[in-house]
Amino acid sequence: MSNCPICSKWEAEPENRIAELKQTYVSLNRDQFFPGYCFVYTKEHVTELFHLDEATRNAVMAEVNAVAKALHGAFHPDKINYELLGNMAPHMHWHVLPRHSSDPLWPRPHWSEPHQELVLSAEETTQRVALIRSHLERG
Questions:
Q1: Taking the model in full, what pTM does it have?
Q2: Do 96 and 82 meet the contact criterion of CB atoms below 8 Å apart?
């Protein structure tokens, strides 16, 4: 879909690319207030899980799970948060966030209160992407 911000994300943000998987792309969120915060979004423009056939849906969920496992290995959080809404950007995408009980918004959802964005330097972004990618490749 030409005006969908998620459809263009992979091309528009090459510095945040972590992995191209079979069904999804994985990108680092620009705001790293929650270290490791990633997006997992379908390559195909689709809005609902039930729009996918069962095999594709299972493959997508396996890829979301693989990203969560990689984030757990890289950041050792107390909990992984998953969010799939699509109200503002109607393209299936998960917000996958490692959460620590020491973070300032614990235990509330990451969007419950405004916070100052934490944008990494280019070098820090490259390092964070490489860390997550290495854990994802380990499986």
A1: 0.95
A2: yes
